[in-house]
Amino acid sequence: MVFTTPAIGALRRRFPDAHLTYLVEAPAEPVVRHHPDLNAIIVLERPRGLARLRYDVQLAARLRAEHFDVALDFHGGPRSAFLTWATGAPQRIGYDLPGRRWCYTTRIPWTRSLVPPRHSVLNQWDLLGPLGIEAADAARDAVTMAIDPAVDARVQSRLAAAGVAAGAPLIVLHVSAGNPFRRWPAASFAAVAADLAREDTRRRVIITSGPSEAAAAESVAQQARLLAGGAAAGIVRTGEFDLAELAALVGRAALYIGGDSGPLHVAATTRTPVVALFGPTLPERSMPWRDPVVGAMAVDAGPLPCRPCHQRHCVPGDFRCLTAISPTMVLSAARTLLGAPTAQGR
Question: Could you tell me which residues come within 8 angstroms of residue 151 by beta carbon, excluding any fewer than 6 positions away?
């Protein structure tokens, strides 16, 4: 979702007078809620059973009534392909995928192969080629997410209520991911948080997670406080943040650390340096797409016979692509981006 935001700006440059509408599912709507280049947003709900069928038929009628000239399907799933077809747009651009190619008038080659790796933004940018849009440039076409001032103020209030001083350097440590293939061990996160808090007692390491992994975040915070000793006050938990709040929080921080998941790419929309942890995925495909002058470092386990993988079954059975990433490696990257001299490893 975040990776589509550079394309919005490119479309606006190419068609400055166009009316741009973005169709998005409700959970991800905050990513584009205040995008300056969009004219309208249609929020897609996900009812179940027969209600889903009725909903999609009604939505299809609404889309056709809009009389779009061009429809682009960045998702490529069956539902998005159907809705793209339902617009009736004279030009419908999508990936040449089995069972769905009939939905499009212009089909772009697609491969499920993970090798050779190619960034996801570039894969999506291919859909813009038929519209005469030039090649993507990360400095110009960075991912973007506008921060709502009201949300920013709400985050500031939450930090103050948690005892975080206004001028305290913040480090956001996001400990969850959508699946076990992208989840770094809790003990490793705790070790990194504790070291960062001990190195500078002014720092506040904010432990965040997705709503379904609040218990894991609490566990990391507890372990980190024990390891931090006298610097335990530097480890902060203040509930969970939705996408808009997370963007505002990271925008206030000196550093973000997290795995290859949606929150990492929300963080990439800010000017905050990022340490990105890659397990079964590759930096070449999923590194934050942003201006190269903004610090970002990838940390991974290096070449493995099973990496990258499709994240359905861990062939070795031990998630070694994640467990082989040590706290020392992450701390080294963090210190580099924070501008501190590299300390002795753990």
Answer: 244, 245, 247, 248
On whether the CB atoms of residues 97 and 111 are closer than 8 A, the answer is no
pTM exceeds cut of 0.85: yes
Q: What is the pLDDT of residues 39-54, one digit of tens each?
A: 999 999 988 889 989 9
Fold of 149-338: Rossmann fold (3.40.50)
State CA 253 to chain mean position distance. 17
| Strand, coil or helix: 185 | coil
CATH topology of domain 2-131: Rossmann fold (3.40.50)
Residue pair 72/127 in contact (Cβ under 8 Å)? The answer is: yes
Domain locations in the chain? 2-131, 149-338
Name the nearest CA neighbour of 211 among 189, 188, 178, 257. 178
Same fold, 2-131 and 149-338: yes
Q: Which residues of 74-95 are buried (b: 16+ CB within 10 A; e: fewer)?
A: bbbeeebbebbbbbebeebbbb
